[in-house]
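Q: I'm writing a short methods note and want an example of a predicted protein-small molecule complex. Could you take the sequence and the SMILES for S-adenosylmethionine and return the bound structure as tokens? Please keep the output block clean; save any remarks for afterwards.
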Amino acid sequence: MTDIDYFEMNRLGWDRRVKIHAESDFYDVKGFLAGSSSLREIELKELGDVCGLTLLHLQCHFGLDTLSFARMGASCTGVDLSPAAIEQAQKLAQTAGLDAQFICSDVYGFHRGNTDPYNIVFTSYGAICWLPDLERWAQVVSSNLIDGGTFYMVEFHPVYDLLAGYAYFTKSLPDVEQEGTYTENGSEVVAELATWAHPLSSVLNALIGAGIQIEQVREYPFSPYNCFEGMEEREPGRFYLNHKGHDVPITYSITGRKAT
Ligand SMILES: C[S@@+](CC[C@H](N)C(=O)[O-])C[C@H]1O[C@@H](n2cnc3c(N)ncnc32)[C@H](O)[C@@H]1O
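A: Understood, no commentary inside the block.
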């Protein structure tokens, strides 16, 4: 089976998840429409003021985070593989009265030339596991940034994946699983999905190889999402996981700048 077939598998799986996610408490579309941001403390603090900047959100799902950035004054473009997610994002933008562009595309197909390069390229929580090749991904990141532009990502930590029984190192073939989804209403949307493991060194080296100067790498013992079994909310909005008496690294973030 080729990568293209895995992408089709994932596109179908994500298409099926969109409606359930948009109706979930987990994503809280109602709260977003009432004015709250879907962005969490880590990215809000680390990315800072985006007002007046152009921002490309890779793997934007149905656009909540993209539109939260738009509300902060950024000029946003969201890209996602799933036509259902893009359609939902466009509807949400209209309902919220926010201006943002949403484009249905595989990440690897979104090279410079699709649009002008951006001040910021952003991606978050549960994105890179859907991609088999991080070097190609980092080239897409770099080609979509202006010189001196900011790359920012916040992701789930691969050490968590290892403890949960998945690979730490990348394998040529993905893990393919039949699974429900992570929202509280998600047990009925079982879909077949393909994911690839990526150790932290692969993420960093791919970015460095694509001309992104790494400025900060941070690791956290908490997630802003209560999305893994056994998590404990020790402070509001911070979910921790204990392994043999120690905190598990659950999330990490990377800030970089495109070399001029
Ligand atoms: C977990 S979600 C995005 C996370 C985001 N933080 C959120 O919760 O809204 C992952 C997204 O990646 C998208 N995706 C998966 N593979 C992709 C690919 N090859 N190109 C573009 N988008 C992809 C899926 O359609 C899905 O919307």
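A: Remarks, as requested: The first strand starts at residue 54 and ends at 58. The two ends are 40 Å apart (CA to CA).
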